[in-house]
Amino acid sequence: MFSASITFSNDGGEKELNVKANSEFSIELKGNPTTGFNWYLQNADEIRNSKVIKALNLKSSNTADYKQSSSRKGMVGVGGAFKFKFQVKDVAKTELPTLQFVYTRNLEKILKDDSIATVHLIKDDPEPEPIPEPIPEKEEVISFTSEGGRQELNVESDTAITIQLKGNPTTGYAWYLENSTEIEESKVIESLNYGEYIQDKALAGVVGVGGTYIYKFQIKDVSAGELPTLKFVYKRSWVNGSVATAIVELKSEGVAVSSAVAPKIESLVKPFREPKPIEEPKPIEEPVEEPVEEPIEEPIEEPIEILEDDNMIIFSNEGGDDELVVEDNTSFTIKLEGNPTTGYSWYLDNVDEIKESAIEALNLNEVGSADYVQKSAPAGMVGVGGTFIFKFKINEIQGELPQLKFVYKRPWETKNPIYEATVTLVSNVIDVIKDEIEDDDNVIAFSNEGGNEKLAVEDNTSFTIKLEGNPTTGYSWYLDNVDEIKESAIEALNLNEVGSADYVQKSAPAGMVGVGGTFIFKFKINEIKGELPELKFVYKRPWETKNPIYEATVALASNDSKKVEKEEIKIEEVKKIEKEEVKKIEKEEVKKVEKEEVKKVEKEEEKDVKVLKLGKTETTGEIKVKDNETFVVEVKGNITTGYAWYLLNEEELIEAGITPLNLNKYKSGDYINAKAKLLLGTNGTFVFKFKVDTVTDDLPPIQLIHRRSWNPITNRDPRLEITIKPE
């Protein structure tokens, strides 16, 4: 029985497969369902109804068998492969269908970034009839080495011309038709392709192999005008100037050439002989090895410099996703590390979309790339990488800004880049928000000290609560009675997972830090069937569970006067309690809690518990412990800046037998600020406690991240990795 198999990566692609009648074949697609993505047969209904092909293991969900790749015991998040099996019945009955697969989280809502895999099934005829190709009446072939040169060619009407140019795009160089515009406008000659590249045959795994660029033309009528000269240049797309030039002077008896040509060369076109093999430059493999040999200082120094500029984002050569806040008439820079000597460069993928927006590209070249700066290197060293620098300016923002989408690819490739980078641009919309809500009667605003208000509401009405605050101090506003609100007729429209909502910073001069803003909570009243609960807001730090420094209460009344009176009484009672208790909380309770936490830490150290102390700027650490031992990791920090240390891999640690003992619901540990004596703005210590069951050499490291809880995680957030070793 004839059988075959095709394998795709999780990026998908397009392939062909020859099949015979009464044969079976399989399609294997790499993927990782732990990310939420699965491979589906998109045209499953068509295949189920097909008379020529049968799906052997297709499930009702339109997916198939999945097998995880082998991995170490306890390792999670490991990918594998989806395997779809099919049987071909009779290939003679009708045309074979195309198999269309999609890698997505939701088959009902496929996104444009979801990967697609397409398999074209072709009848495998043992003696296929050759398809005759149209053969031109006359064909002329001219070949050049990678050094170019100058040749003359006598042509007649209805003559096909093929120009072959040796080259190696893995060096970053490619052949381009320099006077393509002149050729397009010519009535004498027609361009049949835009340059096709064919790589020379090589052993599997060999890199840096060269090949041939092929340009094809058709001479239409030599009497229709002047014959142009074909001029090709061998260059890197991001560099002005070329290293080689190839010129073909077209001539016909009685017809002049379009431009003044340099002095005639002695040798005209001769019968084509295969040029001597070009010895490809040996340092081609160096682009792969070079980054390993570069001094460690280079990748460390550059990010430090970049982090000082708020209007700059940098990506490694693997790309990624990031976000940038912009305003009218501001400029910013995107830097992407790359190595064009490998043939790959960074390009802006959505040039047309950017041109139609408020974003102005300041240094984009004709192929969609930008300035390239090579890293410093010893004289004569080749294969050195560098940085692509894209510069933009924001003009007047009149609507939503598009994303900037960059792709890392070779210039002749049109899809499936090896890496991508995306920058989401967010405009400062505080003035827009003010205009939208200032005229709204259903808005209540509080200062950062909170207070008590009441609001009359009806069915199917919306309202907004605004609370001034400053998260750079570590404090934010939270809805304190989330569960009670969820069970009522009140619907929270923009509540996030930690119980806070949208935050808009006040406008300020560029570079100013510590600026406050407004927390904006939005709600909707559905059908009122009973008494509405109060909205209770607290101004606190994310790890605190009681004694907020300020509170705000909104009593909701559904046009019921008696209910409003009750709410007013409650408000007066709250005011009295607030005045009596706030001072006690600030002066006595905080000191008491602080002293208790200090004593706990001191007791832990006295019990001979191992403690690893690390500074805020350190990135790695190591601690040696025994089986069933408790240990402590202390990291310096300052919560008043809004930044805190959080544990990234709690589930991985627990699965490996490492149990966090003092995590709060935000995945942070205890915060101690004993020496500050309640002075604001001083440094403190984040304390993480763990217990390990069995200590081995392959335990996962503890991963901590330093960030603000209300900002999305980015590659620029400082991280700390602690290795656990047996004592």
- Strand residue percentage: 35-45%
Total strand count, please? 45
Relative helix content? 10-25%
Radius of gyration: 34 Å
Shape: elongated
Distance between the termini: 60 Å
In short:
With 727 residues, the chain is mainly β.
Note the topology.
Blueprint: E1 3-8, E2 13-19, E3 23-31, E4 38-41, H1 44-48, E5 53-55, E6 65-68, E7 80-88, E8 98-104, E9 115-123, E10 138-144, E11 148-154, E12 159-167, E13 174-177, H2 180-185, E14 189-191, E15 196-199, E16 211-219, E17 229-235, E18 244-251, H3 286-293, H4 297-307, E19 312-315, E20 319-326, E21 330-338, E22 345-348, H5 351-355, E23 359-361, E24 371-374, E25 386-394, E26 404-409, E27 419-427, H6 430-438, E28 443-446, E29 450-456, E30 461-469, E31 476-479, H7 482-486, E32 490-492, E33 502-505, E34 517-525, E35 535-540, E36 550-557, H8 561-606, E37 610-614, E38 620-625, E39 629-637, E40 643-647, H9 650-655, E41 658-660, E42 670-672, E43 684-692, E44 702-708, E45 719-726
Parallel strand pairs: 1-3, 2-9, 10-12, 11-18, 19-21, 20-27, 28-30, 29-36, 37-39, 38-45
Antiparallel strand pairs: 3-7, 4-8, 5-7, 6-7, 8-9, 12-16, 13-17, 14-16, 15-16, 17-18, 21-25, 22-26, 23-25, 24-25, 26-27, 30-34, 31-35, 32-34, 33-34, 35-36, 39-43, 40-44, 41-43, 42-43, 44-45
Q: What features would you describe in this structure?
A:
The chain is mostly beta strands and 727 residues long. Helices cover 14% and strands 39% of the residues. Strands 1, 3, 5, 6 and 7 form a 5-stranded mixed beta sheet that branches. The longest helix has 46 residues, at 561-606.
